[in-house]
Amino acid sequence: LNLPSHHDEL
Amino acid sequence: MTLFRLAGDLSHVLAILLLLYKIWTTKSAAGISGKTQLMFCMVYVTRYLDLFTSFISVYNSTMKVLFISASVATVYLIYFKFKATYDGNHDTFRMEFVIVPALILALIWNYAFTFFEISWAFSIFLEAVAILPQLFMVTKTGEAENITSHYLFALGSYRALYILNWIDRYYFEGHWDPIAVTAGIVQTVLYGDFFYLYFTRVIKGRKLQVLP
Questions:
Q1: For the segment B35-70, what is each residue's pLDDT rounded down to a tens digit?
Q2: Residue B32's closest CA among B44, B21, B19?
Q3: Cβ(B11)–Cβ(B157) under 8 Å?
Q4: Interface predicted TM-score (ipTM) of this complex, two decimals
Q5: Three-class HEC string of B9-26
Q6: Do A8 and B169 touch (CB under 8 A)?
Q7: For chain B, what is the mean pLDDT?
Q8: For chain A, how big is the Rg over CA atoms in Å?
Q9: B83-117 pLDDT tens trace
Q10: Shortest CB distance from B112 goes to which of A1, A8, A10?
Q11: Are residues A9 and B180, on separate chains, in Cβ contact within 8 Å?
């Protein structure tokens, strides 16, 4: 599941 | 890491430190909504569950620890240390009216029906509306101390800067995060009225007064 970028944002 | 995101995070850190500074130096939680701070605690705890499972960068982990600890400290100061100065009579917003819808929406709209992703989506939706008790309190008391309005300005600016970051990332990286962007826009729009008052009054050196 290629998660969108949000996991690298606070 | 875009410049907008760094500016946004720094504005967020500034807001959190401004609030701690105000409460600590005035030894008073007057004018501060404890409910908003409680919900911010929930926002950070439910969003940063991956603090110990996925390492992204020192910066990322440091900020997560800072946000969680600072929000717990703020709640402690309001509800325990300076409890006598907490203005509960004006902090009357019903938290369940935002927490329940955020939870229901997170169960419907998420990136995966897993505990972590539902918790993350809940955190994003809750953050968008967590400031409402504080904004309610400002309208109820009719005014806000200068430092409280600077706190709100820094806090409102952080997600506004994130919107610029998301535009930047969409333009250069070609993807975006629908849940975070939608909630971020709602969150920033809710500050609209406050931003207007901030720029028309506080910047000119006058107190933030919500005209009756």
A1: 999 999 999 999 999 998 888 899 999 999 999 999
A2: B19
A3: yes
A4: 0.80
A5: HHHHHHHHHHHHHHHHHH
A6: no
A7: 95
A8: 7
A9: 999 999 999 999 999 999 999 999 999 999 999 99
A10: A1
A11: yes
pLDDT in tens, B139-156: 999 888 999 999 999 999
DSSP state letter for B89: G
Contact B160, B198 (CB under 8 A): no
- Mapping DSSP to helix (H, G, I), strand (E, B) and coil, where does residue B101 land? helix
Cβ–Cβ of A10/B120 closer than 8 Å? no
Give the end-to-end CA distance of chain B in Å, rounded to a whole number: 43
Please tell me which of the candidates B63, B162, B175 has its beta carbon nearest to residue A4. Answer: B175
A4 CA: distance to closest CA in chain B (Å)? 6
A10:B173 CB<8 A: no
Residue contact A9–B67, C-beta within 8 A: no
Question: Nearest residue on chain A to B159, judged by CA atoms?
Answer: A10
CA–CA distances in Å: residue B96 to residues B93, B132, B140: 9, 12, 19
Pairing state between β B143-144 and B208-209: antiparallel
Q: Are B177 and B166 in contact (CB under 8 A)?
A: yes
CB B22 within 8 A of CB B151: yes
